[in-house]
Amino acid sequence: MLPLDETRRELTLANHILAKQGLLLGLGHISTRHPVDPGRFILARALSPNLVDIGDLHEFDLDGRLLDGSDIQAYGERVIHAAVYASRPDVTAVCHCHPIELLPFCNVGVPPKPVTHVGGMLGET
Q1: Domain for residue 60, yes or no?
Q2: Confidence at residue 26, expressed as pLDDT on a 0 to 100 scale
Q3: pTM of the predicted model, to two decimals?
Q4: 4, 20, 35, 99, 112 from 122: Cα distances, Å
Q5: CATH number at residue 39
Q6: Which residue, 91, 97, 110, 116, could crosslink 28 as a Cys pair with Cβ 3.0–4.6 Å?
Q7: Nearest to 24 by CA among 33, 32, 15
Q8: Residue 120, pLDDT score
Q9: For 105, how many CA atoms within 13 A lie in the half-sphere containing its CB?
Q10: Cα–Cα separations (whole angstroms), residue 10 to 36, 42, 93
């Protein structure tokens, strides 16, 4: 298991790599389970992944509550990360993203509908 400082450094690096590869872009985020306390996970504040620095990382519990008492703007989707960690003790990292190349597959077998915020201008159907 990695010490906390190394885990935080690698999570910062993961944000930058996934942003550079176009997976996260301005939307999406990656978290990791805490290396010592499995009832916690580490996630950056709501910030574009390519801008994340070690100081932007914060700890959350498995209900998605911020544990450090700061007043940062946290990702609303942190509860998705929390639910995965709570239900799957074997999972050590979670990446939530919306790669544009995969979005058409969200509608396979159903009538077309908007699947991104920019598609909302098209209406419900």
Answers
A1: yes
A2: 66
A3: 0.81
A4: 46, 30, 44, 20, 11
A5: 3.40.225.10
A6: 97
A7: 15
A8: 65
A9: 5
A10: 15, 11, 11
Angle in degrees, CA 91, 106, 80, rounded to 5: 30
Domain with 55 in it: 4-98
Is 6 annotated in the active site? no
pLDDT, block means (10 residues), the chain with 125 residues: 88 94 81 97 94 96 94 92 97 88 70 68 65
The label of the residue with tokens 């176009």 reads 22
Cα-Cα-Cα-Cα dihedral sign, residues 47, 24, 37, 64: positive
| Catalytic annotation, pick one of 6, 10, 77, 124 | 77
Q: What are the Cα distances from residue 4, in Å, to 8, 36, 80, 87, 121?
A: 6, 8, 22, 23, 44
Taking the C-alpha atoms of residue 86 and residue 62, their distance in angstroms, rounded to an integer, is 6
Total structural domains within the chain: 1
| Euclidean distance between CA atoms 119 and 91, whole angstroms | 32
- Residue 96's beta-bridge partner residues? 29
Give the pLDDT confidence score for residue 89 in this predicted structure: 96
Asked whether residue 120 is domain-assigned, the answer is no
With beta carbons less than 8 A apart as the criterion, state whether 116 and 103 touch: yes
